[in-house]
Specification:
Layout: E1 2-7, H1 22-26, E2 37-40, E3 44-46, H2 52-58, E4 68-70, E5 97-99, E6 105-110, E7 116-121, E8 127-130, E9 152-155, H3 161-169, E10 178-181, H4 192-200, E11 203-204, E12 211-213, E13 226-231, H5 237-245, E14 252-255, H6 264-276, E15 282-285, H7 289-294, E16 300-303, H8 305-316, H9 321-345, E17 350-355, H10 366-383, E18 388-393, E19 396-401
Parallel strand pairs: 3-4, 8-9, 9-10, 10-11, 13-17, 13-18, 14-15, 14-16, 16-17
Antiparallel strand pairs: 1-2, 1-12, 2-3, 5-6, 6-7, 7-8, 18-19
Helix pairs in contact: 8-10
């Protein structure tokens, strides 16, 4: 089964004609995207968009053999004329099956937002799922029956990462499922930045006019098992780390800072983090990281190693010069080495957050300088065991490794 993407953008397209934002200003040439529409084996058109016939011709395809046109959502743009020879577009009711003479079977999928998704099974038995913008399949809650796996899923990865997480939770999306981001808008910069964010979710984007073969998964990006996210205060490092796992189910958020009873400012920080996280994530407050890394289980987001180091330095008496010289330094080195070994040997997907403090003002106290130096050593040791390391500056992630 072959799918030609006549467009991959949001309903208004990219760039938007009435928008002067930085993303729209740079979404030119290969980065421009028409409203999303799919041509399946030349026989089925999913969504009819302006200029569909010309888009098909540019991709080396024809709409002459299309026997069914199905719509997923009302278009906000100008009225779309039906090209001569195309059947009148329709929208199947939820749960309805449509069978084409070509042997393709289409089932309308109920959504949790306005619109209709379509699951298409080709004559060869391969399956794809196409979802409208802003929606995810309804009924995929915890405890749902395991679903049959799709070979390809085309969905709004940027706008609804939780929808992808739900599909993964019930087994509808697996490691070999080709997840292609569509309905792309100006929520994220195009080019390398878009590719980087999607790859972290195990997804990819392709240019308008691309023809993809369903079931060929060589281009499916590998999600790094270990990622370290560094950054200064309020740099956006936690947001970057959370974004990397928001399309995965059952994430365990490991908070190393504790609750700090009575500290209202700290409680406010914790509340902001908690509200930002998906409701399906679980939270564990602990600095005992090695056992968690050794266990099998859901992905881990550890935030952050800076506070873990503070806890360890408290435990070994690192703030006292005499205790530091009398075994404290050796004890700290052993704990850091233990953590690095645990990161190296873990079989879980893990994202670790840490502060980068060595580029600022030199601390005025000996204990401050000691902490700065040890955090630098800790970051280097853990980063050395990670497939990907990124530095977040002013909300922008710079890939250092991977």
């Amino acid at each position: 089964m072959e799918v030609t993407l006549l467009g991959t953008g949001a309903p208004a397209g990219l760039p938007r004609p009435d928008c002067s934002c930085a993303v729209c200003a740079t979404s030119l040439g290969a980065h421009a995207r028409a409203a999303t529409a799919l041509l399946v084996d030349g026989a089925l058109l999913l969504d009819l968009t302006p200029g569909a016939a010309f888009a098909a011709a540019r991709a080396g395809r024809s709409l002459g053999a299309v026997g069914q046109v199905l719509l997923t959502h009302p278009h906000d743009g100008p009225p779309v004329e039906v090209p001569a020879g195309l059947p009148q577009p329709a929208r199947a009711s939820d749960g309805r099956d449509v069978t084409l003479l070509t042997g393709h079977r289409v089932r309308a999928v109920a959504m949790d937002a306005p619109g209709t998704g379509y699951a298409v099974t080709g004559p060869d038995g391969q399956r794809l799922l196409y979802l409208p913008p802003g929606g995810a399949p309804a009924g995929l809650e915890e405890g749902s029956e395991p679903a049959e796996r799709y070979d390809m899923v085309l969905t709004d990865v940027v706008g609804r990462p939780d929808g992808l997480a739900k599909l993964r939770a019930v087994g509808a999306v697996g490691p070999t499922t080709d997840v292609v981001a569509v309905h792309l808008d100006h929520d994220v910069a195009p080019g390398a930045e878009l590719g980087r964010r999607l790859a972290a979710a195990g997804a990819r984007a392709v240019p308008d006019g691309s023809t993809l073969t369903v079931g060929v998964y060589e281009d499916v990006p590998d999600v790094p098992r270990r990622t370290m996210v560094l950054g200064g205060a309020r740099s956006g490092k936690s947001v970057e780390a959370e974004r990397r796992l928001e399309s995965f189910p059952d994430v365990l958020y490991v908070a190393t800072g504790g609750s700090r009873g009575g500290d209202s400012e700290w409680a406010s920080r914790v509340a902001v983090h908690r509200e930002r996280r998906p409701g399906s994530w679980r939270t564990k407050e602990t600095c005992d990281l090695a056992p968690l890394l050794a266990e099998e289980g859901a992905p881990l987001l550890i935030d952050c190693l800076s506070l873990w180091l503070t806890d360890v330095m408290d435990a070994v008496g690192a703030w006292d010069d005499a205790m530091w010289a009398d075994g404290g330094e050796r004890a700290l080195r052993a704990r850091v080495a233990e953590l690095a070994r645990a990161v190296r040997s873990t079989r879980r997907t893990v994202v670790l957050v840490s502060n980068e403090v060595g580029s600022g003002i030199v601390p005025a106290t000996a204990s401050g300088r000691r902490y700065r130096d040890e955090l630098g050593r800790l970051n280097a040791a853990v980063a050395g065991e990670c497939e990907q390391v990124v530095l977040v500056v002013a909300g922008q992630a710079v890939v250092l490794r991977g």
